[in-house]
Amino acid sequence: MGLLTNLSRSKYVSSTDPGNEPALAELQRRMRTFYATSPYHSDWIKGHNAHWTRGQHDAQLDMCGHVSPKARLLEVGCGDGCAERELRRRVPDLNYTGVDFRPELWAGRPHFVAADARRLPFRSGCMDVVVAMFVLEHLVYPSMFLDEAWRVLSRNGRLLLISPDFASGPMASEWIGTSYGCGQDKLKRGRWGDALLTAFDTRLRTSAVRFARARELTRGKTRFPVLLHPRCLYYAGFVPDCDAVYPSCSEEVVHHLQLKPEYHDSVVFHRRVGTFGLAVFKA
Questions:
Q1: What is the pLDDT of residue 80?
Q2: What span, in angstroms and rounded, lies between the C-alpha atoms of 80 and 9?
Q3: What percentage of the chain has pLDDT greater than the value 90?
Q4: Does the model's pTM come out above 0.85?
Q5: In the prediction, which pLDDT does 9 show?
Q6: What domains can be seen in the chain, in order of their start residue?
Q7: 129: phi then psi, degrees, rounded to nearest 5
Q8: Please, are residues 241 and 48 in contact by the beta-carbon 8 Å criterion?
Q9: Which residue, 1, 32, 65, 131, shows the most beta carbons closer than 10 Å to its own?
Q10: Which regions in the chain score pLDDT beneath 50?
């Protein structure tokens, strides 16, 4: 796979532009097939959001301080639901509901619902807290999820997001080359040409893309760019965020939700090692 092919697969489009809908719908279909047919849930990420401890799950533990006892909490993108136990351990009398699009992941356990993040099957204002942990970056339609999460939140509710901070750094899903890994990893494996492609990508292309996006965000412009060809669809195996499609950043989320009439405030409750935790409060 040459440089031109790699570059053609590095195209971003705005997920809020109706003119991009055919391409976005095709990406959504391909990503669902990837999650349904790969060992993504059964092997690659199994248990990653369980057994929360300091040093490993600091963002999740910090997030719990924003959940009140007896809260009606909805977790979107719950996967196999292993975070339910961790949340219940730390929040007394929690009223938990989990949502994901693959019901076989929780095998008939209560408190889980199969649904699309764009169309949550709950009435407006019925949840005190909506949580999404390392989900936002995998959504083809991130702004539609934010709108739905906001809709189901009650007055004085809060949206809690944990996600990689891709405002300045690249996603594993967008690095050009012929395999996973950074340039140094590829050099150690003797993949000189592959390493050169990745070095070019890291130092020039992705830096330019992030710089342009930062300028847009300072002007309050939100496009919610989505990568049409994530590397998980072309490379075998798995590395974290090889399936990420949206370069998540807290600034874009806040810009979007500030336009809502019920927006009250927001705070970054965690920012460390390329990860942010964001709380957005509804009036």
A1: 92
A2: 31
A3: 71
A4: yes
A5: 66
A6: 3-37+167-233 (no CATH), 43-165+248-282 (3.40.50.150)
A7: -140, 135
A8: no
A9: 131
A10: 1, 3-4
d(CA 116, CA 185): 37
Q: In the block, which residue shows the tokens 């006892």? A: 69
> 263 phi and psi, to 5 degrees?
-65, 135
Q: What is the pLDDT of residue 6?
A: 54
Q: What is the DSSP string of 138-205?
A: G-SSHHHHHHHHHHHEEEEEEEEEEEE--SSS--TTT--SSSSS-HHHHHHTT-HHHHHHHHHIIIII
Could you tell me whether strands 72-76 and 127-133 are parallel, antiparallel, or unpaired per DSSP bridges?
parallel
Residue in 145, 157, 153 with CA at minimum distance from that of residue 116: 145
Give the pLDDT score at 205: 77
Structure tokens belonging to residue 63: 């997030």
Report the percentage of the chain scoring pLDDT > 70. 97
Q: Cα separation of 130 and 160, whole Å?
A: 6
Write down the residue that tokens 């083809």 correspond to.
140
For residue 115 the two structure tokens come to: 């649904």
d(CA 222, CA 250): 12
C-alpha 251, offset from chain centre: 14
Which residue matches tokens 């349904």?
Answer: 36
Q: Facing residues of 75 across strands?
A: 98, 131
The answer to whether the CB of 282 falls within 8 A of the CB of 155 is: yes
